[in-house]
Amino acid sequence: MLASRTEGVARQKGIAMVQAANQIDAISAIADENCQLLVVDLQLPGLDIEALVIQARQSSKSSLRIVACGPHVHEQRLDTARAAGCDRVVTRGQFDREAAHILGMTETT
Q1: pTM of structure
Q2: What gap in Å lies between CA 43 and CA 53, rounded to an integer?
Q3: How far is CA 81 from CA 1, 33, 92, in A?
């Protein structure tokens, strides 16, 4: 659900999107010099958000923004993402409402 919503908004904004099924694929994708935003679904099985943020920060340019998203009832996961250093942590509902703004976080004017 998150991927399809994100893909639709990205298409409308003319933003290329790569979907990663796991942390290894995500790190590989952000190695692309054009990658500006990593959106992490906190419900990804086996996700270690702390390790992912560390790896992302080490293997990408400093302008990479990391947004984590998860159900509002998973407060611990949301708190862990904040503590891990994500630039923004939102609930699924917030992401649905603010997807265009969130994906536009890297746009320059």
Answers
A1: 0.87
A2: 15
A3: 20, 24, 14
* Distance of alpha carbon 9 from alpha carbon 4, whole angstroms: 9
Instruction: Show the tokens assigned to 4.
Output: 């399809």
**pLDDT (tens digit, 9 = 90+) per residue, 49-98?**
999 999 999 886 778 999 999 999 999 999 999 999 999 999 999 998 99
Helix (H) / strand (E) element for 66: namely strand 65-70
Going by pLDDT thresholds of 50, 70 and 90, the confidence category of residue 1 is: low
Tell me how far apart the alpha carbons of residues 79 and 89 are, in angstroms, rounded to a whole number.
8
Q: Which two tokens stand for residue 89?
A: 């942590």
Question: Is 108 a residue whose pLDDT tops 50?
Answer: no
Strand partners, 91: 70
Residues in contact with 94: Cβ distance below 8 Å, sequence separation at least 6, in sequence order: 69
CB 95 within 8 Å of CB 2: yes
